[in-house]
Amino acid sequence: MSDRATIRGGFNRGGRSDRGSGRGGNRGGNRGAPRGGHGDDHGERERPKKENILDLSRFMDKQIRVKFNGGREVVGTLKGFDQLMNLVLDEVKETMRDEEGEESSRSLGLIVARGTLLTLISPLDGSEEIANPFIDAE
What predicted TM-score, i.e. pTM, was given to this entire model? Predict the structure, then answer.
Protein backbone atom coordinates (compact mmCIF):
# COMPACT_ATOMS: atom_id res chain seq x y z
CA MET A 1 0.00 0.00 0.00
CA SER A 2 2.85 2.39 0.69
CA ASP A 3 4.04 2.16 -2.96
CA ARG A 4 0.67 3.15 -4.32
CA ALA A 5 1.59 6.84 -4.82
CA THR A 6 4.67 6.02 -6.85
CA ILE A 7 2.92 3.33 -8.89
CA ARG A 8 0.10 5.67 -9.85
CA GLY A 9 2.44 8.37 -11.07
CA GLY A 10 3.66 10.33 -8.06
CA PHE A 11 2.07 12.73 -5.66
CA ASN A 12 -0.31 14.49 -7.98
CA ARG A 13 -0.95 11.71 -10.53
CA GLY A 14 0.85 13.64 -13.24
CA GLY A 15 4.12 11.87 -12.72
CA ARG A 16 5.90 14.96 -11.35
CA SER A 17 6.22 16.17 -7.83
CA ASP A 18 6.41 19.93 -8.53
CA ARG A 19 3.17 21.70 -7.71
CA GLY A 20 0.86 22.91 -10.44
CA SER A 21 2.45 21.13 -13.36
CA GLY A 22 0.44 17.90 -13.37
CA ARG A 23 -3.02 17.26 -14.70
CA GLY A 24 -5.33 20.00 -13.55
CA GLY A 25 -2.53 22.11 -12.09
CA ASN A 26 -2.15 25.73 -13.16
CA ARG A 27 -5.69 25.86 -14.48
CA GLY A 28 -6.20 28.63 -16.99
CA GLY A 29 -2.77 30.13 -16.52
CA ASN A 30 -0.09 31.37 -18.91
CA ARG A 31 -2.19 31.52 -22.04
CA GLY A 32 -1.67 34.65 -24.09
CA ALA A 33 -0.08 37.78 -22.64
CA PRO A 34 1.75 37.83 -19.32
CA ARG A 35 -0.22 38.71 -16.20
CA GLY A 36 -1.33 42.29 -15.99
CA GLY A 37 0.16 43.24 -19.33
CA HIS A 38 -1.27 44.01 -22.72
CA GLY A 39 1.08 42.48 -25.26
CA ASP A 40 4.07 44.71 -26.12
CA ASP A 41 3.02 47.63 -23.92
CA HIS A 42 5.65 47.40 -21.18
CA GLY A 43 5.73 51.11 -20.27
CA GLU A 44 3.34 52.92 -17.99
CA ARG A 45 0.53 54.65 -19.81
CA GLU A 46 -0.72 57.95 -18.53
CA ARG A 47 -4.44 57.69 -17.88
CA PRO A 48 -6.71 60.70 -18.14
CA LYS A 49 -7.78 62.12 -14.80
CA LYS A 50 -11.20 60.93 -13.71
CA GLU A 51 -13.58 63.77 -13.04
CA ASN A 52 -16.97 63.81 -11.36
CA ILE A 53 -20.03 63.98 -13.55
CA LEU A 54 -21.27 66.92 -11.52
CA ASP A 55 -18.97 69.86 -10.79
CA LEU A 56 -19.95 70.65 -7.20
CA SER A 57 -17.36 73.43 -6.85
CA ARG A 58 -19.86 75.75 -8.60
CA PHE A 59 -22.26 75.29 -5.67
CA MET A 60 -19.80 75.91 -2.81
CA ASP A 61 -21.31 78.18 -0.11
CA LYS A 62 -24.69 78.10 -1.90
CA GLN A 63 -28.00 76.54 -0.89
CA ILE A 64 -28.68 73.11 -2.41
CA ARG A 65 -31.44 70.53 -2.09
CA VAL A 66 -30.38 66.91 -1.52
CA LYS A 67 -32.66 63.87 -1.71
CA PHE A 68 -31.62 60.52 -0.24
CA ASN A 69 -32.43 56.87 -1.03
CA GLY A 70 -34.92 56.45 1.82
CA GLY A 71 -36.99 59.44 0.73
CA ARG A 72 -35.50 62.00 3.09
CA GLU A 73 -34.94 65.49 1.75
CA VAL A 74 -32.72 68.26 3.13
CA VAL A 75 -31.79 71.80 2.18
CA GLY A 76 -28.49 73.30 3.30
CA THR A 77 -25.36 75.25 2.40
CA LEU A 78 -22.66 73.21 0.67
CA LYS A 79 -19.39 73.57 2.61
CA GLY A 80 -17.35 70.70 1.16
CA PHE A 81 -17.31 67.48 -0.88
CA ASP A 82 -14.96 64.74 -2.05
CA GLN A 83 -14.59 62.47 -5.10
CA LEU A 84 -17.03 59.95 -3.60
CA MET A 85 -19.71 62.68 -3.54
CA ASN A 86 -19.77 62.80 0.27
CA LEU A 87 -21.13 66.24 1.14
CA VAL A 88 -20.65 68.55 4.09
CA LEU A 89 -23.74 70.75 4.53
CA ASP A 90 -24.30 73.51 7.07
CA GLU A 91 -27.53 75.15 8.32
CA VAL A 92 -29.44 72.05 7.20
CA LYS A 93 -33.22 71.78 7.41
CA GLU A 94 -34.91 68.42 6.81
CA THR A 95 -38.35 68.50 5.22
CA MET A 96 -40.72 65.66 6.13
CA ARG A 97 -44.12 64.81 4.67
CA ASP A 98 -46.80 62.81 6.46
CA GLU A 99 -49.48 60.55 4.95
CA GLU A 100 -51.83 63.49 4.30
CA GLY A 101 -49.13 65.37 2.38
CA GLU A 102 -48.55 68.02 5.05
CA GLU A 103 -44.97 69.25 5.35
CA SER A 104 -43.01 69.81 8.52
CA SER A 105 -39.34 70.65 8.94
CA ARG A 106 -36.64 70.41 11.58
CA SER A 107 -33.20 71.94 11.87
CA LEU A 108 -30.22 69.55 11.74
CA GLY A 109 -27.32 72.02 11.74
CA LEU A 110 -24.06 70.68 10.27
CA ILE A 111 -24.17 67.23 8.59
CA VAL A 112 -22.04 64.92 6.47
CA ALA A 113 -24.13 63.26 3.75
CA ARG A 114 -22.72 59.98 2.48
CA GLY A 115 -22.36 59.91 -1.31
CA THR A 116 -23.72 56.38 -1.76
CA LEU A 117 -27.12 57.46 -0.37
CA LEU A 118 -27.67 60.50 -2.60
CA THR A 119 -30.27 60.36 -5.36
CA LEU A 120 -30.60 64.06 -6.26
CA ILE A 121 -28.54 67.23 -5.81
CA SER A 122 -29.94 70.51 -7.09
CA PRO A 123 -29.28 74.19 -6.43
CA LEU A 124 -32.13 76.20 -4.93
CA ASP A 125 -31.48 79.19 -7.18
CA GLY A 126 -30.45 79.22 -10.79
CA SER A 127 -32.35 76.15 -11.96
CA GLU A 128 -34.23 76.39 -15.20
CA GLU A 129 -36.61 74.03 -16.91
CA ILE A 130 -35.56 72.67 -20.30
CA ALA A 131 -37.49 70.72 -22.91
CA ASN A 132 -37.30 66.93 -22.62
CA PRO A 133 -34.72 65.81 -25.23
CA PHE A 134 -36.08 62.24 -25.20
CA ILE A 135 -39.56 63.08 -26.49
CA ASP A 136 -39.90 62.92 -30.27
CA ALA A 137 -40.91 66.21 -31.85
CA GLU A 138 -44.11 65.60 -33.78
Answer: 0.56
